[in-house]
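Kindly draft a polypeptide, keeping tokens residue-aligned:

***
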Amino acid sequence: MSKKVLMCGNEAIGEAAIQANCRYYFGYPITPQNELTAYMAGRLPEVGGVFLQSESEIAAINMVYGAAAAGMRAMTSSSSPGISLKQEGISYLAGAELPAVIINIMRGGPGLGNIAPAQADYFQATRGGGHGDYRTIVLAPSKVQEMMDLTRLAFDLADKYRNPVILLGDGLLGQMMEPVEFKVESLKLKGKGKKTSTNKKPWALTGAKGRPRNLLRSLYLGTLEQHNQHLQEKYKKISRKEVRYEAISLKDAEIVLIAYGTSARISKAALAKARKEGLKVGMLRPITLWPFPSDIVAGIAGRAKALLTVEMSAGQMVEDVKLAGEGKCPVHFYGRMGGGVPTAEEILAEIRKI
């Protein structure tokens, strides 16, 4: 039995994490994701979980490392500058092959910037962000229901591949309220249950009585190249199996919008206006920013007259679009920076120019 509940995006992430059996949350307050921290502070004690407001973002990500090493589902969240502080720990998680979920509700930057929604953390999320040759799976919701659905998926993917997963939202998605469908039983979930993962993890550090001891590390003296080769094979597998996207009106499209998150919501409105004017416009919305739907973009570029990438940044995803398109058609860009949000009319004006 399910029920629709009016929730903001940050709260939907929190309840979805509870449903996904996350019982450990470590974080430090920063706007515009504080509703998530507050929600976890209230909900985790109700289900026998552990909420800890750490002394810093650096401490929070290392606490996630510890809980993940013990086989538990653990999560942290922050906004842009706070995620920057977590990068060393995220690299350690990737190097030690530990599953973890990291929520970034992006704000304007660089530096402290402002608390308005932005998408300028794309490079940081999709290129690893920290040191070394590693990747994180990056999921990009565009509505509150997806904030919930992709959070649950994030925990499953993290466990499946023993890899950090980033959910990349923004201040608008985190703050807006929409009806979200939950299982009624999950919303009533309470009680001091065991703090266990949903999956058995034979590699976890749970005590070695009766079995050989496990070792989790990111320090490899003398064998680091072999470890990196193993990681790259895993990333190739993820790239083959985990690409997700939404395609809209592509069959006859001459101009194709490519956008994610909040920019995709607004681009859909621009697409509808363009179609009313008789313009043959379609849209591709990447749901996984990494792995990026490169093959899909390549196919579209081979038959469209032009691509238009829309972002709330100076242009970051547009580089992946150009790489995937391989020069098969022109790639245009429209973006707003520093917390500026494009309007459907602005995007439509760019379509008309093309």
User: Anything to note?
Assistant: The longest helix spans residues 144-161. The chain has two domains: 2-241, 245-353.
